[in-house]
Design brief:
CATH topology of chain B: Formate dehydrogenase/DMSO reductase fold
Order of helices and strands of chain B: HHHHHHHHHHHH
Shape of chain B: globular
Oligomer: heterodimer
Number of domains of chain B: 1
CATH architecture of chain A: 2-Layer Sandwich
Radius of gyration of chain B: 21 Å
Strand content of chain A: 5-15%
CATH class of chain B: Mainly Alpha
Largest interface: A-B, 82 and 87 residues
CATH topology of chain A: Alpha-Beta Plaits
Largest sheet of chain B: none
Helix content of chain B: 55-70%
CATH architecture of chain B: Up-down Bundle
Chain lengths: 355, 389
């Protein structure tokens, strides 16, 4: 019987076809993408945060979100975590006697939970219908409910647990911070930064915010220093300048004029780590803290984004559909040789005996 | 190559109303009631899924595991038509039928789980698609494969309807659909594993690796053969037919070949990545890993020897264990080994379980109706057929 030989030939040929394809596919490895040069973001400085939650309330209002209750009296908005209706939350770290702020043992600290606007976002890579997109200029990760199919792959993919779904609604959407991009055209920047009384949440170009963060890390703890509030000036200038012909969206995105709100206060005892500078290739929201980032809920992430690995695998296997077509060609060749006589005979017989 | 010596497929005949079909009907009615609540009041009204576990059993069991169980058709068709092992030809139709239902229902099941299902056309709309998305590749491939399988299976219906001309014309092009029918499942079964890659460190290192596509493909093929063993034994006992041992014994050997390759890649990958020590940590994940590994390895012992492969009970048990093994690997990767931080828990609600049970009931019911009314299973001698009715 020749079947064993045929079998081995088939195995060898298809194996060879597949290997040849993997080997000959141009290297499609995709590096982790950096954030765009004009990326916008936030700098959250936990040492400046007083936990007033003005940003939580402002975020609710700016995004037209309903209150969520966790107390029996239902008096005011008391969400315990971000959700499909809460895009920004200040969480509290508590330890022991909670005697002092920004102290790891027997202390307490605050941490802001909201979208990090990754340079190479997993949610954007995961979304099958481009409902989750990254703006090529501002880098804002935005959501379009008119495309979204509600598969919640973005919810599963995000390492920060940011996109959340509205499970209580038959037409539930994904809810997440979009850096208040809908307010930009009126000259308003992120509501959380706009209302922050201590400048703990600061809006600006991420590059400028990163310089500001490094400046703060170099400060002597306890020493008086000047801290800006609202948004960083360079961001305002850059945006007001707009495009050279004076037209276009960027001009309209110029931030509204507002007085310099900077103030003097003692510098915190920072950990020498700007969270978001390198995590997953860099995020547009940066964070400073005195307490270990993992303890305040920020995951320890590698410098390479998972999206880069996922897309490298995907494009190595399916880039330009080279490999699928090569394998299909091999399969068609074998199938053409092996199929016909087979079915004709058995089917004819089937007809004769049937019913 | 010719298969004249095989018995041609023929309808089994027999009544359609019995305790099994009635139970299936009841489960299907329950499912429909639950789905009505789901579509009126949202996913949260009937499921326990949450933002820490956004994918519950409707995704992991109905789609990821369900479609792997439905790989029998692809695995056997590949053996018969690509590797030219014509001796397994009688297994093709029943296996293809089970696959057809498995996949069609996985596709339908996705719709229950999609939170914004009316937007699903964006998946195929050039202005919306995202080729970087693993989910996009999975969705498109599965949709195409469902269509291809209906075409592959259509001669059965055409035969019964007496449309012989159409069937002949279709048969001329059938080789191409058969080829497509092997490439498409290879693509999406591997990608179902790749789905986990973008979740990064949220997936436990025992189940997060760049070789996920290969692991999921090899295990899906193994599961495909395991399902054929399982189904053949079950169908034989339920319909009082002879067990087709002359085909199942060598088929089991092919299955063990794929299983051995899978185990080699699985363990090799764990060693190379240095993740193996985590399997000895005192954790639920480690326990589940060993349970999964045991289900993969025990069949090697059970039916490793040729004489043992002639024992139908052992074949059946090995088939069940391998189905369980592949299912466990998928549950472990997507749920047990998935950790997003925060205080999230997930255990399926009764309603979720009932919908999944309802989906499998549709499959069983349709399989019974079609094998009894259409020429699917190989014909046995006339006496046996009369005894049944």
């Amino acid at each position: 019987m020749g079947t064993r030989r045929e079998f081995l030939k088939g195995v060898l040929a298809s194996g060879a076809a597949a290997t040849a394809c993997v080997a000959s596919t141009p290297v499609l490895a995709r590096d982790t993408r950096p954030r765009p040069p004009e990326a916008l973001g936030l700098l959250y400085d936990a040492t400046l945060c007083v936990g007033c939650k003005a940003c939580v309330a402002a975020c609710k209002e700016a995004n037209d979100n309903p209150a969520e209750f966790s107390t029996v009296d239902h008096l005011w908005d008391t969400p315990l975590d971000t959700s499909g209706y809460t895009f920004n939350l200040i969480k509290m770290y508590r330890n022991g006697t909670m005697a002092a702020k920004d102290q790891e043992t027997n202390g307490f600290a605050f941490m802001k939970t909201s979208c990090m606007h990754c340079g190479d976002p997993s949610c954007v890579s995961a979304c099958p219908v481009s409902a989750m997109t990254k703006d090529p200029v501002t880098g804002v990760v935005g959501y379009n409910p008119d495309k979204c199919i509600g598969c919640r792959y973005c919810v599963a993919a995000c390492p920060f647990g940011i996109p959340k779904y509205q499970y209580d609604s038959p037409t539930g959407r994904i809810g997440k911070c979009e850096l208040c991009r809908h307010r930009h055209k009126d000259g308003h920047y992120s509501a959380c930064a706009e209302v922050c009384p201590t400048g703990a949440t600061l809006f600006g170009r991420t590059e400028d915010l990163l310089s500001e963060a490094k400046l703060r890390l170099a400060m002597k703890p306890g020493e008086l220093n000047r801290f800006p509030r609202g948004h960083l000036r360079p961001a305002q200038e850059k945006m007001l300048r707009g495009k050279e012909d004076g037209k276009g969206e960027r001009k309209r995105r110029g931030w509204r004029d507002e007085p310099d709100q900077s103030y003097e206060t003692p510098a915190g005892t920072y950990l020498q780590h700007v969270y978001g500078e390198k995590e997953y290739g860099g995020t547009q929201v940066l964070k400073l803290s005195a307490v270990n980032f993992e303890k305040v809920g920020m995951p320890n992430l590698p410098p390479d984004a998972a999206a880069a690995m996922s897309e490298t695998i995907q494009h190595t296997l399916y880039g330009n559909l080279i490999m699928p077509f090569a394998v299909l060609g091999a399969m068609t060749y074998f199938a053409k040789r092996n199929v016909k006589p087979d079915d004709e005979s058995s089917d004819m017989e089937g007809k004769d005996h049937g019913q | 190559m010719a298969n004249n010596h095989h018995a041609a497929p023929a309808p089994l005949g027999g009544r359609l109303v019995n305790i099994i079909t009635l139970s299936c009907g009841l489960l299907i009615a329950l499912m429909l009631a639950i789905l009505m609540v789901r579509f009126l009041f949202g996913l949260g009204a009937v499921t326990n899924i949450n933002d820490g576990y956004p994918w519950g059993i409707w995704v992991v069991v109905d789609v990821v595991i369900g479609s792997a169980f439905a790989c029998g058709g692809f695995a056997v068709a590949m053996l018969v038509y690509i590797f030219n092992r014509g001796e397994y030809h009688p297994l093709v139709r029943p296996a293809l039928l089970a696959s057809l239902f498995g996949y069609t229902l996985a596709g339908a099941g996705v719709m229950f789980d999609l939170g914004r299902w009316w937007n699903v056309w964006n998946m195929f709309w050039p202005g919306s698609i995202n080729p970087n998305s693993v989910m996009f590749e999975v969705a498109v491939c599965i949709t195409l494969y469902i269509i291809v399988m209906w075409i592959e299976f259509s001669p059965t219906f055409l035969e019964q309807m007496g449309r012989h001309d159409t069937r002949k014309k279709l048969n001329k092009a059938m080789f191409f659909f058969i080829a497509l029918g092997t490439v498409l499942p290879m693509m999406h079964q591997s990608s179902l594993g790749t789905l986990l890659v973008v979740m990064g460190s949220q997936v436990h290192p025992l189940w997060q690796t760049p070789v996920l596509p290969l692991l999921y493909l090899l295990s899906a093929i193994t599961m495909g053969y395991a399902v054929v063993l399982f189904e053949s034994c079950l169908a034989s006992s339920a319909e009082r037919r002879r067990i087709e041992m002359h085909m199942l014994t060598p088929l089991a050997k092919v299955m063990l070949g794929f299983l051995a390759a899978f185990i080699a890649v699985r363990l090799g990958d764990l060693v190379v990545r240095g993740a193996l020590p985590l399997a000895f940590a005192p954790s639920v994940q480690a326990l589940m890993f060993w349970l999964e590994m045991a289900c993969f390895i025990v069949p090697l012992i059970l039916i490793g020897a040729e004489t043992n492969r002639r024992n139908p009970a052992r074949l059946f048990l090995a088939g069940v264990l391998l189905m369980l093994a592949g299912a466990l690997m998928r549950v472990n990767g997507f749920l047990i080994g998935y950790e997003t931080g925060g205080d999230f828990n997930y255990f399926p609600s009764l309603a979720e379980v009932l919908v999944t049970a309802g989906m499998f009931s549709v499959e069983v019911l349709a399989y019974i109706i079609i094998t009894r009314r259409f020429p699917v299973l190989p014909r046995e001698d006339v006496q046996a057929a009369y005894q049944r009715s």
